[in-house]
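Reminder to self: tokens first, then the designed residues, so the page reads top to bottom the way the pipeline ran.
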């Protein structure tokens, strides 16, 4: 029988924080997806009154090593304080867009991140 081990991340390292006004945040998120011409519906994580997106580093051997050591690195976290709603409508370049909220309150890393953001930006 195979042995199963659970080893959660031990540290979350954020290299840049960007707090935006609510409208600016949602327009920025929608514009990023539009700029990539993916045709996807933009989404944001939401936990306890904070909506956020994370900017990841490229996967490199060094980043994999860091992850295996239990450390996550985010290049940037963009966030805003806003109540939960399933989606928010915004206008980008004259076109209506929808940004969906994804509840992240069951992800312990996201909960810890939001606790940090709330305490850091008060």
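Designed residues (122 positions):
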């Amino acid at each position: 029988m195979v042995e199963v081990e659970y080893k959660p991340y031990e540290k979350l390292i954020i290299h840049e924080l960007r707090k935006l006004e609510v409208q600016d945040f949602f327009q920025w998120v929608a514009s990023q997806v539009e700029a990539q011409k993916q045709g996807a519906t933009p989404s944001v994580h939401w936990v306890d009154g904070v909506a956020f997106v994370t900017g990841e580093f490229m996967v490199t051997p060094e980043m994999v090593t860091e992850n295996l050591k239990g450390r996550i690195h985010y290049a940037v976290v963009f966030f805003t304080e806003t109540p939960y709603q399933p989606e928010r409508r915004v206008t980008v370049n004259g076109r209506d867009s929808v940004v969906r909220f994804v509840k992240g309150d069951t992800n312990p890393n996201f909960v810890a991140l939001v606790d940090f953001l709330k305490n850091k930006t008060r």
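The chain has a mean pLDDT of 92.
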